[in-house]
Amino acid sequence: MTRALFSAVVVSALSFTLVSAQVRDRTVRADTPSDLITISNGWSALAGGRTDAAIRAANDVLARRPWDHRALQLKIDAQSATAPGDALDTYERWLGARGPEDLGLLASIAEGVLRQLASSSSPDPDLKRDAEQRIAAANGRSAPAGGGFAADAAAARGGDAAALERLRAAATAAMPPDKTALATALVDAGAAAVPILMPLLKAPAGPTRAAAAASLGRLSAHDAEAALVELIRDPDPFVRFSATVALARLGNQQGQQAVREMLDSAVPDIRLMAAEVWDGQNGPWVPAITPLLTDPNGLTRLRAARLLAAIDPDAVRRTLTDALADPNPVIRTETAKTLAQIAANGSGVADVGLLRRMLRDADPWTRLYAAQAVLAAAKGSR
Predict the structure, then answer these.
(1) What is the pLDDT of residues 179-215, one digit of tens each?
(2) Nearest partner of 67 among 29, 35, 111, 34, judged by Cα
(3) 74 contacts 36 by C-beta, under 8 angstroms
(4) 75 touches 90 (CB < 8 A)
């Protein structure tokens, strides 16, 4: 065979092979679309509100590739849109004995739980509003209008003059909804809240005076020091202690000495108030508060856990695990709230497995706080 003839035969054979492969590839794509295309179509269906089609697409891929994380994410997102309980079932079947938990997948389920609570027929308007606020926060949006003092305070901190004016009006109203709640929420408005808080130090109700003092201390409002000194002679002991703690936060020597004496109190609540001055940083408060992790009062144990989360995470985790098994639903709900607060502060205390189980709790507030904690933990893991 001549060299020219040999070359022609090789070229012909290669051409036939390439053409055959192209025909075969077209046939495969036409009859059985690739997994990538199937998943892409599933996401398009979900974006269009066709959750059933999205789930079918995910199931089609998972039937062949049960380990495919892309398909699993699609299925869980689709189920979370209408039935977060089903999404949790899917997740737990996938998890099996694998471990560790996947916060990205759980975050989708947590958002689904919040959407379910926000659209529920619950007669509790606070529950629905709080769920809406947490959905907004999870997606980097502003809280819905009419979200109460907390929403207005957060908006005011961001420079919303109208929100600040609403807070000021509530503080001076003759019959406000709850000036104590207002004084507590105002700390989130930042320095702009100080002029609103100052008059509340003379409010008729002791709890309002105490809340105003506490907020001013957290805001490091040195202009309030003289007024706080007057409050340490208030007839209400709760007001006196709140003013003392606020003064200690401001660096007032009289307040700091009094706070150290409070740490020696036989009354747990007084010791807990004093310990707040250190904002979770190590200090002489730790040995005074650690024994309270085993206090007979469940709420006292939870307050101690919040303070000690960054100092002794293992001990706090044990306390919270026990609290989740408490027969008292109030304790379980407060435990979920505590876990959400700890997760938001970036502590590694939160047990993701516990949070996952709490997403099924019969109490809606417990589910709300558990979802919030999952989202905070997911955000902190990035």
Answers:
(1) 999 999 999 999 999 999 999 999 999 999 999 999 9
(2) 35
(3) no
(4) yes
Which is nearest to 363 in space by CA: 338, 341, 331? 331
Instruction: Please report how the helices 148-157 and 161-172 are oriented relative to each other, as an axis angle in degrees rounded to 10.
Output: 130
- The CATH H-level superfamily of 147-262 is Leucine-rich Repeat Variant (1.25.10.10)
**Contact yes or no for 370/340 (Cβ under 8 A):** yes
Q: Classify 160 as helix, strand or coil.
A: coil
Tokens 């907390």 found at: 150
As given in the structure block, the two tokens for residue 123 are 């007669």
Handedness of CA 181, 187, 192, 195 (dihedral sign): positive
The DSSP H or E segment spanning 159 is: none
- How many beta carbons lie within 10 A of that of residue 173, not counting itself? 11
Distance CA 369, CA 382 (A): 21
| Listed residue (35, 45, 40, 44) closest to 68, CA to CA | 35
What backbone phi and psi angles, to 5 degrees, belong to 309?
-55, -40
CB 79 within 8 A of CB 51: yes
Q: How far apart are CA 249 and CA 243, in angstroms?
A: 10
What are 144's two structure tokens?
């819905």
Q: From CA 320, how far away is CA 308, in angstroms rounded? A: 12
Q: Which range, 19-23, 33-37, 208-212, 340-344, has the best average confidence (pLDDT)?
A: 208-212
- Domain map of the chain by residue range? 147-262
* CB neighbours of residue 128 within 10 Å: 18
Does residue 74 contact residue 54 with C-beta atoms inside 8 Å?
yes
Tell me the pLDDT tens digit for each residue of 98-122: 668 898 999 999 999 999 999 887 7
- What's this model's pTM, rounded to 2 decimal places? 0.73
Dihedral sign from CA coordinates of 310, 100, 363, 178? positive
d(CA 49, CA 308): 45
Three-state DSSP at 349 gives coil
